[in-house]
Amino acid sequence: MYLVKISFLTCLLISGVISYSQSDTISEIPDTVSIEYFDVFQEVDPIYPEDPLVLFIEMDMKKFYKSKYKDESVPADLTLVLQDSILYTKKIKIKPRGEFRKSHCIFPPIEIKFAKSDTDNIFTEEGNKLKLVTHCKNVSIYEQYVLKEYLCYKMYNLLTDYSFRVRLLEIHYIDKLGKKKPVTKYGFIVESNKSLASRINAYPVKLTGIPLNKTDFDIGNIMAVFQYLIGNPDWVVSALHNVKLYKLINPLKFDPVPVPYDFDYSGMVNTDYAVPDEKLGITSVRQRVYMGYCIPEEDLRKVLDYYIQNKDHFYALVNNCGLLNNFHKNEMLIYMNEFFEVIENPFRVKTDIESTCKRQ
User: Fold this and answer.
1) Closest by alpha carbon to 317, among 76, 46, 116, 69?
2) Which residues lie below 8 Å from residue 64, measured CB to CB, with a gap of 6+?
3) Rounded-to-integer distance, Cα 338 and Cα 165, Å
4) Exposure letters 41-56 (e unless 16+ CB within 10 A, then b)
5) Pairing mode, if any, of strands 53-59 and 166-175?
6) What pairing do the DSSP bridges indicate for beta strands 85-96 and 27-28?
7) How many helices (H) and strands (E) does the chain have?
8) Pairing of strands 85-96, 110-114
9) Which pTM does this prediction carry?
10) Which H or E run includes 202?
11) How far is residue 351 from each of residues 265, 296, 328, 342, 357, measured CA to CA in Å?
12) Which tens digits make up the pLDDT trace of 30-68?
């Protein structure tokens, strides 16, 4: 099976679908590399976005495009390439996900499902399903949206381990029938609930009705300020809307920990489809509104100082992302500048945060 796939990928190389140099080859995984210890979310330096993993997804593209209207899975072949070597090839099923993006996107986010019997799946820690964020539309700006949302996840990773890890991907979509041209776009994998729960030694809480001020005090306030940093109005803890709750096994930690996800509606990503709720009193997601609860001034100051301590890391993370074009990179940096102008100014903290926070 590997030999067949190697030949197929070699043909793609020759035809120019993949832009490797002539000296590059795709071969079997070297004997010195063991997939048993391969970490999908391996991170060498948190302020340097890692090189993307290369995925090939071969499927009936026409059937996939239609599947979002029928809520059906489509069979596909997934090939993972690491350092120009095929790590493995698997039979998978792909299913579009995300209610809004299924209706809005030509190529919506997808769920990759492995067979439960697949014991040598390197994504075993993720369960048998993977959430994959895709480019949505075949327009260059949408690929920039993907990179910006990916960076939002990485920024939150800098602040706390109680966050979803992500891994950048270079994805080659191949039509099995050869009727549609191959498409190469960036995307990213989001860590599963199962993996996160195991990593932080917790279990998920699926009960709605728990407000932000009944979650872990420190993490809840770090999260609220983060949502303000990226200008994200699209989250509600009590409704579990774009937030997961986890109860730590630690008996000294009673309140659940909130973990945010889905940042495409934020001002930092600034997608052309992001529209804030009218109830918030803003007309654009680029207008920040603090949605956290009011806390004692000294506690708020500690949280804001924590962000100031990480300021250089935030800027470095964005500046070090070579795949982000200059326009969108500058847009992110300017938006961050505006955040730090607020939190470094005591008067602006009172007018922009303390005056709009929710009363306990």
Assistant:
1) 46
2) 74, 76, 94, 96
3) 26
4) beeeeebebeebbbbb
5) parallel
6) parallel
7) 10, 11
8) antiparallel
9) 0.88
10) strand 202-205
11) 24, 15, 29, 9, 10
12) 333 445 556 778 766 778 877 888 999 999 999 998 888
